[in-house]
Amino acid sequence: MKFEDYRPYLSPALAKATDLIMESGQGCYLTDVNGVRYLDFVQGIAVNALGHCHPKVVAAIKQQAEQLLTASFNVVNYPSTLELAKRLAEVTPGKLNSVFFSNGGAEAIDGALKLARAYTKRPAMIAFEGSFHGRTFGALSVTGSKAKYRKTYEPLVGSVYFTPYPSKDLCPNGFDEAQRTNFCLDELDHLFEYLVSPDQVAAIIMEPIQGEGGYVVPSKAFVQGIRQRCDRYGILLIMDEIQSGYGRTGKMFAGEHFDVVPDIMTVGKAIAGGLPMSAVIASPEVMAEWHPGMHGTTFGGNPICAAAALAVLDVFKKEQLLDHVNEIGSYLNGQLQELQKKYACISDARGLGLMQAIEFSHLDGSPAGDLLAKVQKGCLEKKLLTLGCGVHENGMRFATPLNVKKQEIDQGIAIIDQVLSQLSKK
Fold first, then answer.
1. Is residue 426 predicted with pLDDT exceeding 80?
2. Is the whole-model pTM more than 0.70?
3. For residues 225 and 31, what is the distance between their CA atoms, to the nearest angstrom?
4. Which residues have CB under 8 Å from 4's CB, separation 6+?
């Protein structure tokens, strides 16, 4: 079986990173139709929280599939989905315990934006440069990671304003973390003064740690500064935890690192261990303004997805997965720091838990997206799947399973080391 034989039947809109056709997966590995095994540090872009085909997730899917596939959650209720809503409320911070189930991250973002407008009766949204929230019109309208994503589709949803996120790329050269924090908070204040009155803003939407933007970790002062401004002006804070949440940073949700609870939170990716599921989560007070019929879904809350999601939560609890993420994440970060010391082209290594990334730069400090492309190509040849990030496409993010083993980390790091060593000799 060759991908080229099937390309005519697929839209070219979906960019393909490889031509590989995968037949099976287990844990941290994928096997293609030719029987070749690959170490997978992509995991569906941080979707497979427990790796490929975790036995407990598979068993839950099989059991539910034998009972009921779907009947539409807006017509009837399912035991698995009802139980999942309750279990989610037990792990979400603050009063975030009212759930609207969706199918994918972008759909959840669109729902969150609608909910914010419904609750506040205000029109405007503020988002951050460097952000990625999805490809639907609403999610794309608050996405600022790459201009090419927005190109061709203007005009997008109106009354959306962008402000800098405290990454090195978006702040004056040479600024340290405190200076970047102050600069970005000042820019937000200027936005309120010159472009949009805060009493017209429904919500500020942010990734507590930017995903595609480069796995950028802001300061606690910055995130708390955003929360304070929201409180001051009656603006809702939406945290997009679709990639950063569900244990990836060593806490269930990344916002917990900053002691900040949002008014609305979106989750997805890892929630159902590999099946398509997402959710908009808010307090009952906020959710109460979403009256019956103001939003809807056909497949959201699917019982099979919910059964898989319950299995994921069971593993989190029984195997103390967050402790493992913190331990192995610290180990991974240490290995990446060693690579940075060894290779001058690695200009940064950063992250929390298992949300880690390295950044490639030329000797003059300019982004080395060309080098990353060569590194990824070399890794693929050595049977390691990797994932890029960053507006300049010069970052490599690590989206391993949350239960990844030390020897699997070592195997991946060894491959990257070999590739960099070979490239440095050319």
1. no
2. yes
3. 46
4. 19
